[in-house]
Design brief:
The chain is of the alpha+beta class. It is built from four helices and 24 strands. It folds into four domains: about 110 residues, Beta Barrel (conserved putative lor/sdh protein from methanococcus maripaludis s2 fold); about 90 residues, Efflux pump adaptor protein, beta barrel domain (Elongation Factor Tu (Ef-tu), domain 3, Beta Barrel); about 60 residues, Beta Barrel (OB fold (Dihydrolipoamide Acetyltransferase, E2P)); about 70 residues, Helix Hairpins (Orthogonal Bundle). A six-stranded mixed sheet has the order 18-19-20-24-1-23, with no helix packed on it. A six-stranded antiparallel barrel has the order 3-12-15-14-13-16. The chain has a four-stranded antiparallel sheet with strand order 2-17-22-21, with no helix packed on it. It is rod-shaped, with a radius of gyration of 41 Å.
């Protein structure tokens, strides 16, 4: 194959190889790597908790206590509905409880009186049993009244819409005077104290990504800062059109000034499970038929001579190429002056 590749160069050669002047070249020594593949992916920060808060009862909005950008804690008031009718119903329910309690107390008094009278044989046994039954009925009626009161009290409490978790108001979606139903969102609340960095990773990385992979993150809005991160989850649902899956990272720097929606770049170092020889990309020569070669220098002769060898490229990392086969460790490759070399040509190494 190499004879075919070099045929053009041999036809142009007019003088015997031995009579050529050594061509000046620059060389580089291949570096053996530990099989770590470096990859950079881009993504965006998302909030771990975000909600469009809705009321639990329908009603007329009386007050909106927050606006976009406000920070709230758990239980802080967001929106209050008009609860006048609900409070009147609560007062009525409380009165019903008092009436039921008074009826229970009166039934208990008559029962106790009947027990004293029956000892003196002034009251029939059946009358005592009736009074005891009346107490049980009154106690049941009291429990029903208390349950109804608690139900109305809970309905009153639900007129106050509070924050379910700590965060920042992202959007205010309603105003005072509007009627809202239970499915109507009134504010959008986002927790900003802990964020995810969501990336779309190529599907070929699925079996090779582990929780122990080394990850660093660079936020576009924070130039010059590199933040440590870790793999939190690989979502096992891939995009069939893009052949990607969701990779979710968690930042170790919880106090970083980052907000949801910011873009970032994550650099992952993945164990490739094998070793490679790294050489400069300028040393690689690619041919139209897909063949990839490099010129290697034999410095054991005087002058040094070059020969072309076919290599197997595993991947490209910036200005370097990982070679998976075809190249010997410790054999220097030509990185400058390799454009017009021919087989067995003498060269002069420029250090």
């Amino acid at each position: 194959m190499l004879n075919r590749l070099f045929a053009t160069g041999l036809l142009v050669l007019c003088l015997p190889v031995a009579a050529q002047e050594p061509a000046p070249v620059e060389i580089a020594l291949p570096e053996q790597t530990s099989g770590v593949q470096r990859m950079e992916l881009t993504g965006s920060f998302t909030a771990r908790r975000a909600a469009q808060v809705s009321p639990r009862v329908s009603g007329l909005i009386a007050e909106v206590a927050v606006d976009a950008g406000d920070a709230v804690e758990v239980g802080d008031l967001l929106v209050r509905l008009d609860d006048e009718l609900a409070r009147l119903a609560l007062a009525q329910a409380e009165a019903s409880v008092e009436r039921a309690r008074a009826a229970r107390d009166e039934a208990a008094r008559l029962r106790d009186e009947g027990r004293r009278l029956i000892r003196d044989r002034f009251l029939p046994e059946t009358e005592l049993r009736a009074r005891e039954s009346a107490v049980q009925v009154a106690e049941a009626a009291l429990r029903v009244a208390e349950a109804e009161r608690d139900t109305v009290a809970e309905r009153v409490e639900r007129h106050a819409i509070t924050a379910p978790f700590a965060g920042v108001i992202a959007r205010r979606l309603t105003e005072a005077g509007e009627w809202v139903e239970t499915a109507t969102a009134v504010v959008e609340l986002v927790a900003v104290d802990a964020l995810w960095l969501d990336l779309q990773a190529p599907q070929r990385l699925w079996p090779r990504l582990s929780a122990g992979a080394r990850v660093t993150v660079t936020v576009d809005a924070l130039p010059g800062q590199t933040l440590p991160a870790r793999i939190h989850a690989r979502v096992p649902v891939s995009d069939p059109t893009a052949r990607t899956f969701l990779l979710r990272l968690a930042l170790d720097a919880e106090d970083a000034d980052i907000t949801p929606g910011m873009s970032a770049r994550a650099r992952l170092e993945i164990d490739a499970g094998e070793t490679f020889l790294m050489i400069p990309r300028d040393a690689v020569i690619r041919y139209p038929d897909g063949t990839t070669t490099v010129w290697v220098v034999d410095r054991e002769t005087s002058p040094a001579r070059v020969r072309q060898v076919e290599i197997v490229v595993a991947r490209t990392e910036g200005d370097r190429v990982a070679v998976a086969g075809g190249l010997e460790a410790g054999r220097p490759v030509v990185v400058r002056g390799n454009e017009v070399l021919v087989e067995d040509q003498p060269v002069r190494v420029i250090e």
